Amino acid sequence: MSQCLFTRSLAGSGLLIAALLATTPALASTERLEAELRALFAEGGELSIGDVSSAMLRSRYTAEDIVFNSAEGERLMIGSYVVDGDYDQPERVTLQDIRVEDSLTELALLQVEEVVLNEPSRAVFPLREAMGGQDFQLGGLEIDQIVVDLDSELAEEFLRDAGVKRGRGRLDIERLYGESLSADAIGLLEINGLAATGEDLEEFGSGSLTLDSLRMEQWSGLENPEVSQLNLLVMENFAIDSDRLVGRLDELRIDGDLTDGEGGMWLEAFEVDLERMIANAPVEERTQLRMASNLLTDGSGTLKLDAAFNGRWEQHNDHSTLGGDSRITLHDAMQLAFGVNLPVVLPENTQPMDAFHDSRLLDAATLLGGDLSLTLSDMGLFSRLVTVGAALEGITEAQMLEQARTQAQGFGMMMGPEVQAVLSGFVALLEGSASELEINATLPPQSNLKTYTDDPLGLPSQLSLQVETR
Questions:
Q1: Most CB atoms within 10 A, among 158, 200, 405, 449?
Q2: Are 109 and 152 in contact (CB under 8 A)?
């Protein structure tokens, strides 16, 4: 989820949360609550409030049966609006039985069972300041049972940011929970039990989507994308079943907090039903798509992928060390593992973790040697490549392999023994005499990335390469 999409979707709930709160100076009173609610809806429609009262034994102020008819033809209804505690510094603001409907058809556009705002900085925020004003702050947020009509004005901006025009459908969210919320930062935001069904949603087509939970922690710099940082994102049990895309994901985890010396991204049990998607593709594209699917899935039609990208850094007296271990596994096809360990001298006033957020810093860094490793493991893909390649060329598999050997020797003669060793390792994978190819490279001291990017063809001779097959 991009920052722009997130902030706008939160502001989309803004019509709901915007109708929330109130601020004022001294002694709290029912008159102040009513006056500020009326001021909140002073322009663009008609407001009625059934009853405003205060509790006898505690600081509680309640407005009931709030109905606002907007000039655009929408009706907002709030069963009760309750302010607990000191009116100028409320402990809690609670809204119950919220409904936005088309005033002509009375069809529900949005429904919310309950909204609880803990420790809001004001009791009622003017609409223009809700979720965006510099003084907007919430200690906590709880919203239960949200239902949105995807064909409504309320959903249009959210869908537009996702690249989708307004479509027909429904979005349900069991619970939304947040802590330490302001216009520029989010301490915690968690969405649980999301389910959506829709029709004609652009590239998504028609279908359904479910998500057990989405959790984001310590998201800062919301108002400045250049410095925005999200420390942790965890998505669990996501599934989509539509005309264009059919797949599921057990977990996505992103650790963006590198202050502890490590971070990364992990993808667990990502599956895509290629067979279902191919059936919905244009007829003229299906043959090539099915061939690619058979290569990657061994005929099952289901692509299964796991991935892990681990980054780490260490600060020493006169240099830094950047490292990491990454792995991508295409089940029934192949696995690619990559490791890096680079001692570097970064530009002045630069922290090692900055290089993970801005790769341009590496262009100006001095590399003090280092090691790179790449391991390619065959899990069935290479033998299928030989079969398909031979069929496309109209030759036997033996002839296909002989061509590959000849080409490896030819490139080796032109580009050196290092390249020949790598290409010969690929040939060993194709013919099945090896199931794993490992390449280890040692970088020379006192170099930089420009050393290699200016002469990519000379790269093998500049590195100390070791190639092994197993």
A1: 158
A2: yes
Q: What's the Rg (C-alpha) of the chain?
A: 29
State the amino acid at position 392 in one-letter form. Answer: L
pLDDT tens, residue by residue, 130-182: 555 567 789 999 999 999 988 776 666 655 655 556 668 899 999 999 999 99
Dihedral over Cα of 289, 292, 293, 294: its sign: positive
Torsion angle in degrees (nearest 10) through CA of 170, 174, 179, 183 = 10
